[in-house]
Amino acid sequence: MKRAIVLLVLIIACAAGFLITKGIFPSLFVSDESMEPELTSGSLMTIKRLNPEDIKVGDIIVYHVPKTMREYYNYPAVVSHKVIE
Fold it and tell me: How far apart are the first and last CA of the chain?
C-alpha cells in the first residue's frame, strides 16, 4: 500500500512537471522573501490570465518586463507584485 501511494505521488509530480514545462499549467516559483507572509521563498504560484479590469487590491499579479527595461535596470523577464492600490 505504501509503495502504491509513493508511486501515485511520483506520477502526479511528473505529470505536473510536464504540464508546467510545456506551458499548459503556467506557474512561477517565488525566488525570494519579498512576497512573505503570503508566499514564502520556493513557493509555486499558478498563473491565470485576467482582464485588467478584474484585478483588485490584494491580488498578486505577474507581468513581463519590456526588453529595454530589463537591459537598462537589469530586471528579470517576469516580475510578480502584490497590488496595494
Answer: 51
